[in-house]
Amino acid sequence: xxxxxxxxxxxxxxxxxxxxxxxxxxxxxxxxxxxxxxxxxxxxxxxxxxxxxxxxxxxxxxxxxxxxxxxxxxxxxxxxxxxxxxxxxxxxxxxxxxxxxxxxxxxxxxxxxxxxxxxxxxxxxxxxxxxxxxxxxxxxxxxxxxxxxxxxxxxxxxxxxxxxxxxxxxxxxxxxxxxxxxxxxxxxxxxxxxxxxxxxxxxxxxxxxxxxxxxxxxxxxxxxxxxxxxxxxxxxxxxxxxxxxxxxxxxxxxxxxxxxxxxxxxxxxxxxxxxxxxxxxxxxxxxxxxxxxxxxxxxxxxxxxxxxxxxxxxxxxxxxxxxxxxxxxxxxxxxxxxxxxxxxxxxxxxxxxxxxxxxxxxxxxxxxxxxxxxxxxxxxxxxxxxxxxxxxxxxxxxxxxxxxxxxxxxxxxxxx
Length: 416
Ligand SMILES: Cc1cc2nc3c(=O)[nH]c(=O)nc-3n(C[C@H](O)[C@H](O)[C@H](O)COP(=O)(O)OP(=O)(O)OC[C@H]3O[C@@H](n4cnc5c(N)ncnc54)[C@H](O)[C@@H]3O)c2cc1C
Description:
globular, single chain, binds flavin-adenine dinucleotide, 19 strands, eight-stranded mixed sheet
């Protein structure tokens, strides 16, 4: 830390932080921009940041209907990994992992990326065959990972239950050492601050209510703060992408579901890695504050309520207690939900929409936090140049017409 930052920290502490400069501006929307990004989650902010940084486009607005990071970005369980099965997704998530590895330096903002490793547990012989196949595929793609035995898991995580007599005995796991967690709010704030420094206008409390078009090309958007014109509009609104697609006159092959998570009271350090299980539908890590951060499977009904059902919580907590019987003594503190946008092949949709100048980035479902920098990076290329980058070309909307699906249910599933 430089002398200047120490003095500045001390000065701000003494003034009860009242003189801290805002980390980004809150400008009034202009009448016209070179590009508009709808959605101020991590992906939208990252898109604007990389458009400015890598493509020199600075006259950009990010329009957010609420507050930045208030959607799934601020509601997720922050697991980051890149060990997806198929080449197309492995390349995209690994691009993201590489960006994560330098992100705090690049943004000059600590996103608290912690590579504490991620275990994906197997509970049946078929789980273990799938895990072995995925690890082999990952290694062919240069992605780290190996298969571990129950004894190796127990040695690394002493509190886990490897008793073979239980309902879902642990038969092994894949382990990706470079996986881990990051601080979700800091990711949104870091990208916002970075984009703002390049001149991007971040406009909160600004809901897009219609997409304006003329002769098959986008001309701008109608918002709760008036009309804003632009020849390029990138839509990155996660669970609300079908709503925005309907405004533009087409249908998205997306279902929006609630997905919930909960945290316990803070406890002393007990778990220094991430444990996930598709079979029991639960995953857990421990935050720096000490809370156990626990995620569930999606609630099966469609909806836009950011809540989720009580039965989902009960199911998840019983699964976690089966994996970690000692956690039955920990009290749960808070629960919340987000709206995840699921596609039929558990892969995102990133690319050109059927309207000229309109681009969509959505369908990340239960697992898009880990992709935040990579998604923003490829989408920035797509919006800036009008053409997909090689990394996002396979994720075009027309794969649901051509049949070139990339089935990642095995690697995505509930397992973020
Ligand atoms: C409980 C839970 C746990 C999860 N756990 C993980 C995990 O561990 N690892 C992982 O990789 N992923 C996880 N995910 C998924 C991950 O959170 C999302 O895929 C990712 O955050 C999506 O980011 P985003 O920027 O696209 O969307 P969001 O952060 O949801 O941002 C979209 C924004 O668009 C705004 N918006 C919507 N409509 C409009 C409009 N009309 N006008 C203007 N703005 C609009 C919304 O207000 C929102 O802020 C989880 C999700 C949930 C809900």
